[in-house]
Amino acid sequence: MAGLPFSISLFFGGFSVKFFTDYTNLVLIAIVLISGGLLLWPTISRRGRGGLSAAEATQLINRRNAAVIDLRPSADFAKGHLPAARHLEFAELQAKVAQLVKNKSNPVLLVCQTGQQSNKAARIVQDAGYAEVHVLEGGVDAWQKAGMPVVKQGAAK
After folding, report:
1. Residue pair 89/69 in contact by the 8 Å Cβ criterion
2. Assigned fold of 50-156
3. Where does the chain cross the membrane (predicted)?
4. Do residues 113 and 126 touch, judged by C-beta distance below 8 A?
5. Which secondary structure element, helix H or strand E, spans residue 67, and what is its range?
6. pTM for this entry
C-alpha cells in the first residue's frame, strides 16, 4: 500500500491527484457533468420518439421538401390540414406505404391529430424502407396551438 500513492503520483502527477481529491473541485466537476447532461437531454430524448415541433417541421418542409402525409380520417382532414399535406388514412397505410414517395431517401413527415397514430405509422414506413421518417409531435393539435396555418377546402386559415 505504501507504494500505491507513489505510483499514482507518478502516473497522474502530484498536482492531478490533489485536484481530484479536493472537495470543491469534485463539486465543480459534478456541476459540469450534470449541466452538460441537462443540455443534451432534449436531443437524447427526441431520438427515441422522433417527434418534431411545429417550427422544426416547417423547416423540414421548406428546406428539404419533405412529403407531408396526413393519417387522419377524411372528415378530420377536410376540417383542416397542413399546407401541401397528402391524405392517406392510417387504416390504408400498410397497403399503400410503397406509394408514399417515389424516392425513399426523401424525408417523410407523418401527421395525425395528436401524434400517437403517427408514431405507430412511423414504424410501418421505416420498415418499408424509407430512410428518413419524422412525426409531428403533438399532431395537428400542436400545429394549430403554435399558430401555424391549416388549409380547409383550398383556403389557408
Report:
1. no
2. Oxidized Rhodanese; domain 1 (3.40.250)
3. 26-44
4. no
5. strand 67-70
6. 0.68
